Amino acid sequence: MNSTTTAVVLIEFQNDFTTPGGCLHEAVRSVMQQTNMLAHTEELVRQARTYGALIVHVPISFTENFRELRPRPYGILKSVVDSNAFRQGSWGADIVDVLRPQRQDIIIEGKRGLDGFVSTNLDFILRQRGITHVALAGFLTNCCVESTMRTAYELGYYVCTLTDCTATVSEEQRLACEKNFPMFSQPLTHTEFLEQLMAPAEPVGVGRGYYG
């Protein structure tokens, strides 16, 4: 893993998830505490920046009346509408202060659903920057993180999913990390990832070069 071709992708580290008073915080609070994910992500981002990795923020947001969605949303997006979460310009939609983007970071705009690649230019930006490896962190472990992970895998990136920098609700955290992540990524703790990031880069193979 080479830090100059690696991006840390932070999915929905926004107040509505991360912070007391956020619309959806209570749903994820226990798993956040269990994994200590916010503190781990702070350390991850601080060190990854030092090593030269690209930090990419992928927030989600909607207009006041959620007009981007179907008139009668269902599933997880219905929960977002019912809780009035991630409204553009609101405190809840803001990225949490401890992970406030720095000048050299990239903020991806246009995320309206689960997959960080759909409806955004995430893939374009990663390829323009020569990124071959992505490390995913954020919310929800078994929803937006997993959706983004699957697409990154299909697009040919080498994918790491950071198990102690993600959170969802209750037992679904363990099941996602143990059963689903290994099929589409290399599950790692943030310290394991940083160790790989610091290690000498190995030669990239032939072909697309995304599976090193």
Number of domains: 1
CATH class: Alpha Beta
Radius of gyration, whole Å: 16 Å
As for the CATH topology, it is: Rossmann fold
Structure overview:
This protein is an alpha/beta fold and about 210 residues long. It has a single domain (about 5-200), classed as Isochorismatase-like (Rossmann fold, 3-Layer(aba) Sandwich). About 40% of the residues lie in helices and about 15% in strands. Strands 3-2-1-4-5-6 form a six-stranded parallel β-sheet, sandwiched between helices. Helix 3 packs parallel to helix 8. The protein is globular and about 50 Å long. The model is unreliable at about 205-210 (pLDDT under 50).
List keywords for this structure.
212 residues, 38% helix, 8 helices, disordered C terminus, 6-stranded parallel β-sheet, single chain
